[in-house]
Amino acid sequence: MWHKPTYSFRDIPRAMKLAFSAKKIWVGMLGMMLATFFYGVFTYLALIVSGAYFNEIWRIWHFIPIPVGESFNTPGTVLFIFGIIGGIIILLYTQLAIGKITFEQLKGNEFYEINAAISYALKRGSPLIFSPFTILFIIALFLIGGTILGLIARIPIVGKIIFVLFTPLSFFASLFIIYMFFGIIVTLFFAPAVLSSQDADTFDVLFESFSILNEQIHRSIFYEVILAIITFTGVSIFIWAEGKAIWIMEKVFGLNIALGNQFSNMEKIALYYFPQSPLFARIESWLSLLRVDSIIYNVPEMVHVPKEIYFTGVIFAVFLYLAFFMALAYAYSIISVGHLFSYLAIAKHKDGIDYLKEEEVEVITPEKEQKGESQENRD
Q: Whose CA is closest to 340, among 14, 2, 1?
């Protein structure tokens, strides 16, 4: 097993290498596209319910609406939040599948199949949903209790006395709510790793999450900082490589003996179908550093070209979207592998458990069986 971890921070940088896998990137792409589709449908519905027109939404954002600063009415807000939560759940299942592939790889099973990982995630992934919602349910109970205490406080004289008596308890209950919110964060970070490395249920996930929060929060934060640096470095290199690949395509297909200016028009049509958002302005310097700003730019209006060039440009847009999701999938694959490494190291330090160690199975020979029967007769 040449991938055997060291169960320390030195494992985290290895996530960039192990994440660069066709299987993991493909699973990541499937999860990313499905999560984006779910989010996009409900965000479109949220905007339409809130009074926006479909054509207006399509003109600005196309396939992926990013409503920064947009106002929603109450039903629209509910739909928008539901779309975000649904997308997060899909990504958690995706992380579980990637983690399972990585865990089997670390155990020496290099040929663990994608279908098996997805099937495992679908069968064993229910704690990904129930664990954070269990914590939210507990928080809701405390908030309901606080609301009831507030109603009691409105009773003249007696209510104020009861409120004052329960003030210290309310303070500690509020601190507990903050503690539970941190528990949700830890659960979202480590639940896929817990489930991919052992046969766990909702209680096991909650127990491990709060055990990390109470005993290993310093180590987990340190690992997350390293993982953030590794993820940023890895995805930057990946985007730079994709940008250079598109640049080569521009130079080759843009020759006069090839497509010439037609390729530039195809590229503009493809970029027209990408969403616009003020958030993209914040990463312009990063894209400029990676030398991809010249090939990824905003095209506000559709280019008028012949039909065959238009349809070719639409197909090229699909290709660019796939390249975009491939970069996101690689970044998410690094995060998934890194969280598995983090949990394996934390479990080793916290409980002394090596989840990669094969359980020793005692082989019962006829001699041992006969010896056991003789021992039972003597007893």
A: 14
- Report how many domains make up the chain: 1
Give residue for tokens 């999860």: 31
pLDDT in tens, 20-78: 999 999 999 999 999 999 999 999 999 999 988 898 888 888 888 888 778 889 999 99
Tokens of 181: 């919110």
CB-based contacts of 5-10 (< 8 A; 24+ apart in sequence): 5/106, 5/341, 5/344, 5/345, 5/356, 7/344, 7/345, 7/348, 7/349, 7/354, 8/345, 9/222, 9/223, 9/226, 9/345
Tell me whether residue 379 is in a domain: no
Q: Which helix (H) or strand (E) element contains residue 255?
A: none
Residues 238 and 240: their CA atoms lie apart, in Å, by 5
| Closest by CA position to 205, among listed 92, 64, 341 | 92
The 8-class DSSP code of residue 258 comes to: T
Q: Which tens digits make up the pLDDT trace of 109-165?
A: 888 999 999 999 999 999 999 999 999 999 999 999 989 988 888 888 888 888 888
Residue with token string 């970069």: 327
Helix, strand, coil in percent for the chain, rounding step 5: 75, 0, 25
> Does a structural domain hold residue 376?
no
Q: How far are the Cα atoms of 99, 347, 351 from residue 104, in angstroms, in the given order?
A: 9, 17, 21
DSSP category for residue 11: G
271 inside domain: yes
- Residue 329: count other Cβ atoms within 10 Å of its Cβ: 27
- Within a domain: 49: yes
Q: Which two three-digit tokens encode residue 281? A: 């302005």
- Among 118, 89, 92, which residue's Cα sits nearest to residue 27? 118
Residues of the domain holding 324? 9-356
